[in-house]
């Protein structure tokens, strides 16, 4: 299933990335989410001008009982590998769930591009595939909806940070 998310921001791409990588963004995002998902940075390294990050995400929310029975766990814990190329403004991501990783593909790109009219646009494109008979499509749909919801929350946090940043200058 395709994942596509688009948002426009009143800042340049450089300003967006500066705010995105600022620890204050993470703090504000966690507060806005009610700390529903624990995010741990497992690894960070810079190689050939690219920033590689690996995170582990552990949600507080438990899975519905039928899904938990299929997955063999009550929480969907996963790791995400990000590689950010500042020169191109492209972040590539790949998610690996802790359970049945061979049955799930979740990967894509996150790009911030300048708009001719001013500001910038964040474009998230990806694919989510769950290869589980009978339930795969429903699980994909639920994941895509959750991810889109998370980006909506992240967007409001970024809007607030951009506004606060502009007020400082």
- Fill in the CATH topology: Alpha-D-Glucose-1,6-Bisphosphate, Chain A, domain 4
Structural class: alpha+beta
The figure for the number of domains is: 1
Q: Could you name the CATH homologous superfamily?
A: START domain
Number of strands: 7
Largest sheet: 7 strands, antiparallel
Round the mean pLDDT to the nearest integer and report it: 90
- Note the quaternary state here: single chain
General form: globular
Radius of gyration: 17 Å
CA-to-CA gap between the ends?
42 Å
Identify low-pLDDT runs: none
The CATH C-level name is Alpha Beta
Strand content: 35-45%
Strand order of the largest sheet: 1-7-6-5-4-3-2
Work out the helicity level: 25-40%
- By CATH, the architecture is named 2-Layer Sandwich
Number of helices: 4
Give the gist of this structure.
The protein has four helices and seven strands; from the N terminus they run βααββαββββα. By secondary structure, it is of the alpha+beta class.
Describe the structure.
With 169 residues, this protein is α+β, with helices and mostly antiparallel strands. The protein has a single domain (2-168), classed as Alpha-D-Glucose-1,6-Bisphosphate, Chain A, domain 4 (2-Layer Sandwich). It is 35% helix and 40% strand. The chain is built from four helices and seven strands; from the N terminus they run βααββαββββα. α2 crosses α4. The longest helix has 33 residues, at 136-168.
Index terms:
7-stranded antiparallel β-sheet; 169 residues; 4 helices; Alpha-D-Glucose-1,6-Bisphosphate, Chain A, domain 4; globular; alpha+beta
